[in-house]
Write a structure and sequence with these properties.
This protein is mostly helical. The protein has one domain. It contains eight helices and two strands, in the order H-H-E-E-H-H-H-H-H-H. A two-stranded antiparallel ribbon has the order 1-2. Strand 1 and strand 2 form a beta hairpin. The radius of gyration is 16 Å and the shape is globular. The termini are far apart. InterPro entries: OGF_rcpt (IPR006757), OGFr (IPR039574). It holds the Pfam family OGFr_N. One of its GO terms (cellular component) is membrane.
Length: about 160
């Protein structure tokens, strides 16, 4: 059993991908969804992040963020796990949680510059797990606004980013 199952194969070749029927059954089960949120909070804690609001998915740095961010910067395999968590959040109907987690990583990598070794994954992978096209556009625009140098930003067309409102 996986904590964050997906409809695609992952690194564990023995793990069977989820079916659409299984996803629907999970989403309808209060017990499964409660366990899912507990697992999400557990992983966030491991990464030095706290879920502030279960309704909205709002996040903040946890008290132990410095040591946990050091771990995130040192071990890039965490980026694969974060991508998996983000995809699973979408599968389980928590698109708002996706948006908050991606924005958290964009802020920490581009604005606060606390996670330099996560920046490429945040831009290349995390951003594009967000299911909502509108929210994804907002996040790409946010990334573009904070990317240095802006002229090297390749994750969206410059003319559209400049006009975006």
């Amino acid at each position: 059993f996986r904590l964050f199952p997906l409809r695609e194969h992952g690194m564990n070749w023995r793990a069977r991908p989820l079916t659409c029927q299984e996803i629907q059954a999970f989403r309808k089960s209060k017990e499964v969804m409660d366990r899912f949120i507990r697992a999400y909070k557990l992983m966030l804690g491991f990464y030095g992040i706290s879920l502030v609001n279960e309704e909205t998915g709002e996040l903040e740095r946890a008290e132990n963020w410095r040591e946990r961010f050091e771990n995130l910067n040192r071990f890039s395999h965490n980026n694969l796990r974060i991508t998996r968590i983000l995809k699973c959040l979408g599968e389980m109907g928590h698109e708002d949680y996706q948006v908050h987690l991606v924005k958290f990583f964009l802020t920490e990598t581009l604005v606060e510059e606390t996670l330099p070794n996560v920046k490429r994954s945040a831009l290349d992978y995390f951003l594009f797990t967000v299911r909502s096209k509108e929210k994804r556009r907002e996040l790409v625009h946010y990334a573009w606004q904070h990317f240095k140098p802006q002229s090297s930003f390749v994750w969206g067309p410059r003319d559209k980013l400049q006009k975006y409102r």
